[in-house]
Known about the structure:
The structure is a single chain. Helices cover 37% and strands 35% of the residues. It is of the alpha+beta class and 199 residues long. The chain has 2 domains: 1-45; 57-198, Nuclear Transport Factor 2, Chain: A, CATH 3.10.450.40.
Amino acid sequence: MKKIVILGLSVALLGGLAGCGTDSDDSASSSSSTQKASQTSNSQTSSEANTNFKVSVDDAIKAYQEAYPDSDITSVDLETSFGKYLYKIEGVDDNKEYEVRVDADTKEVSKEREENLDTEDKDGVKRKEDKLDLDNLLSVEKVSDIAVKHVGKGKATDWSLDKDMGKTYWEVKVIDGHKETEVKVDAKSGDVLESETDD
Length: 199
């Protein structure tokens, strides 16, 4: 008698699980077709990178230099925050480091941070190591085109100007559906230095 009850409960439980499995398969397939549809629509508009900023990188750099004229810039990032694109610019002089944000549409400048350098970075050490070469930089629009062409398709969404081994480069994030590729582009020549893809 116990065996029949246990067997009956097992069959009922398996039937219930099979029913749940079917439901989740249906929702997974409908969710997957929704994702495919959104990926298709993304890929249709993906080449239209949002690079029409009213404030160019040169304008943002000038805004920083007006705020801290006796310092050198060590990094420039263009990223989105609460739906607004902002340039985040960091720089140093011999004793302090600074951070300024410049609105990419209004050119509004806000001083974010000003702090003393560590002892080992003072007296021009960090300044000499990290100073970016800002002459004849390629524009955000140009490096976006280069990065998207290199990837094949997608949309440029974030930009960082940095330096490694004495070379100033743009790192551009290109999104294509769920695929994200970081492309490093020489900031002067436009040569692609390297790229790395995360699926």
